């Protein structure tokens, strides 16, 4: 995690009166549900103006893997759930190709409210929303991250590099190994990226299965 992100997170913890930093597995869902409710009326950035529903994230609170997209689209804004539109359907297929289901992982986004017309979230909006993601990571304690798309990758890894630069290597965010691949929406528009995306997914799967085996044994 960058020094800035850490500073921002600690500031956020202080402001929100959070004292606990570790949640036993049995308490994680309860905590996440509480926070989802608490933050659903957030007005920290202009995205709240056009929001229909706040999209916190969902999935297994004890997941080994967390998937991080960019921000809610139309269907997500309507339902309040991440990755339920066309991109979400493709994401589910990508997961099933590596023997995973939605219920195995935790899925969320960099910004929790839909940018109007699905534009990219602005830097200020990403910054305002990031503490929520950092807190989700802190609670769930995933062992591996799959970062979906360039916006999420550049935000978390704090650079302006291309997607090509991010692919094919293991990054670290908050000390957690992180893989980067194409955003499913980009794959829907560019068929030719499906092959390289499959390569990324297999790399991710290898690491995931190692972690899974280590957790079970
Ligand atoms: N695209 C995203 O980045 N996130 C969603 O939740 C849906 C589409
Ligand atoms: Fe708050 Fe994040 Fe929504 Fe902005 S995008 S209003 S910071 S929840």
From TrEMBL:
The gene is ung. It comes from Cloacimonas acidaminovorans (strain Evry). It catalyses: Hydrolyzes single-stranded DNA or mismatched double-stranded DNA and polynucleotides, releasing free uracil. This is Type-4 uracil-DNA glycosylase. InterPro entries: UDG_Type-4/5, Ura-DNA_glyco_family4, Uracil-DNA_glycosylase-like, Uracil-DNA_glycosylase-like_sf. It comes from the Bacteria. Keywords: 4Fe-4S, DNA damage, DNA repair, Hydrolase, Iron, Iron-sulfur, Metal-binding. One of its GO terms (biological process) is DNA repair. NCBIfam families: UDG_fam4 (TIGR00758). The keyword Transport does not apply. The keyword Repeat does not apply. Transmembrane segments: none annotated. It is an enzyme of class 3 (hydrolase). Belongs to the uracil-DNA glycosylase (UDG) superfamily. Type 4 (UDGa) family. Pfam families: UDG. One of its GO terms (molecular function) is metal ion binding.
């Amino acid at each position: 995690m960058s020094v800035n992100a850490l500073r921002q997170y600690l500031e956020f913890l202080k402001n929100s009166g959070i004292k606990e930093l570790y949640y036993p597995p049995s308490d994680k869902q309860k905590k996440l549900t509480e926070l989802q409710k608490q933050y659903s009326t957030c007005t920290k950035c202009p995205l709240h103006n056009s929001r229909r529903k706040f999209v916190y994230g969902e999935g297994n609170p004890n997941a080994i893997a967390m998937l991080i997209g960019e921000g809610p689209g139309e269907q997500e804004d309507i339902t309040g759930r991440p990755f339920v539109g066309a991109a979400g359907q493709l994401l589910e297929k990508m997961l099933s190709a590596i023997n995973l289901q939605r219920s195995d992982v935790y899925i969320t986004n960099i910004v929790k409210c839909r940018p109007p017309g699905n534009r990219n979230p602005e830097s200020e909006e990403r910054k305002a929303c990031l503490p929520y993601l950092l807190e989700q990571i802190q609670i769930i304690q995933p062992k591996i991250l799959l970062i979906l798309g360039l916006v999420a990758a550049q935000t978390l890894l704090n650079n302006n590099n291309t997607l090509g630069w991010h692919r094919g290597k293991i990054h670290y965010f908050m000390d957690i190994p992180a893989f980067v691949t194409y955003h499913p929406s980009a794959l829907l528009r560019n068929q030719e990226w499906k092959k390289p995306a499959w390569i990324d997914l297999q790399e991710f799967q290898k690491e995931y299965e190692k972690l899974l085996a280590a957790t079970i044994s």
